[in-house]
Amino acid sequence: MSKTELINIVNSLYDKYENNEDIFCKFKQIVETLPDTLEQTNNTLIEKNERKQKLEKGSDQFIQKFLHNNKIYYHTTSELFFEYKDNKYSLVKEDDVQHIILTTISENQNLSAWKHKIKITILKKIKERDIFTCIPESKTIQNVLNRLCPSICYNKEQAKYFLTIIGDILLKKSNLIYILNPKIKPFLKEINNLACILFGSPTLWNIFKFKYYEHKLEECRIINLPEYNNIDNWNDYFKQDNALDLFCVAAYYSNRYENADTFLSENCKDDALKTYTYYLKNNTEDSIVDIFINTTTEKSEDCSITWKNLQYLWKHFIDTEKIPNIFFTNVLKAKLIEKMKYDQERDMFLDCTSKLLPIVSKFINFWNEEIILNIDEDENEELEIDELCTMFASHSKTNISEKTTLDLIKHYYTDTFIEEDKYLLNIKCKLWNKKDDIITTLHKYKKILNNANNPNKKDKHAESDNINTCEDHDDKLDDGDNSNVDEIPINELYQAYCKNKNKSKNKFIVSKQYFERFIKEESQLYVVNDFVAVKSFDNISI
Fold it and tell me: Residue ranges of the domains in the chain?
């Protein structure tokens, strides 16, 4: 409205009510007080605006300071709040976040009028702060690295690489395939479950594989992690919210290094790690077969390798190289036929041999000559892998590792029952009758007990038996310490057995587990709470 229009309104009112004394008096009163009213209103507006500006400034400062002092973050997918405090990450409830905000605001009375508005603003800003943007302190990073090494990773370079892979998955950046040892699966399963719960992440099984299955070699990366079986320790660790530290450090590394491949190629100082990880990426199927032929076989006229033996050599090769088996059996055979002389009728590869075959041949001969399979389950016969190694060494004058032994059995004798990669069930060796071995010791032990309890009727063979019996126990009997006892610990019997074996020509010794099982289940001795009743030795015929 213009100045002229306002003047016209006033003139019009003046003319209209000039002759109306009451109204005109009121009109004059309003006009006279108008300057003061307007001045007062203007001052009020100025004060209000200044107060608003002060509150806005104070609010902004408060919000900034609050977000700096309280490292609270959010993840939109899982809709969970997280707090980073004292170098540790933890889950925090939304109610607790609001309580922290309101409590802090209440300490500043100048902002109390805006506390709900400030609360809403802070919550909004927190929800804009993704947990994976939080940069952990050095102490947090080192705690995670130290936890991973050496139980999960061999060294810190590998740990950083592994964490970066996890980070890539969490941030949905990875489109590669990572192949690992199946024995690490329990650990990864726990990580996968927690990642799904905390961040709604896609399953790790889309990225991590435990077998090669026609993947593109250039997209494959091999991760060599130790065979880790004790997941219980890690379960305890995860229950303490420490898993959040691992995930957040992983995301930090992924953000810092861009992705796992970039870390490996530009930041990793471990050349061996690079070479191994890129083994499949940097090779073709043909080049890997060539490496196998050149490293495992050698040319030799008038020599040959059966397809069965060559399969074993291939398994030995991939185990040595610690790479996955990238071929189906028929594909591998076809590749080898292309590169080596092959006699289809005899199913043999010609003019070649391997330095590994002599020990294979020795083991096969040993197995065929000395091993008895398919023993009745009721006989409860078993051999441990290390026992078999000991007997093979005695038989063939050649040492062999437990792993090699296990690989040979799995390859050549597939019908053998193997438990926990340690026990061979329903099997025995002609070189050693384990049960007779124990019974012999029990016979000698019974003679000593009889002689101790009947000194006037000392067995004429006892003197020679004492030579091969536990000296410590003999001393106890001579002193009369055990001559009147009613029970003997199984452990003491096992000690006597071991000392007897150490003095004999036969150095094969049964495990304590096998010994105890035999005593309890098959020996005819009466056992209660790992103690053998002395009188029950009468059940053993000499």
Answer: 3-52, 138-277, 300-354, 359-429, 436-539
